[in-house]
Amino acid sequence: MRVLLGAFGDPGHAFPMIALARGLRARGHEVTLQTAERWRADVEAEGVAFAPAPEYHVFPTQERPLKPYEAVVRATGETLELVRSVAPDVLVSDILTLAPALAGELEGVPVATLIPHVDPRPSPGFAPYSLGARLPRTAVGRAGWSLLDPVVGRGLNLGRRELDETRRRLGLPPSGRVHGGISERLALVATFPQLEYPRPEPFPNTHVVGPLLWEPAFGEVDLPPGDGPLVLVAPSTAQDARHGLLRAALEGLGDLGNARVLATWNRRPLDPQDGPWRVAENTRLVEWVSYAKTMPRCDVVVCHGGHGTLVRALASGCAVVVAPAAGDMNENAARVDWAGAGVRIPRRFVSPRSVRLAVERALGEPEIRASARELAGWLALSDPAARAAELVEGLAAPHR
Question: Is the pTM of this model over 0.90?
Answer without folding.
Answer: yes
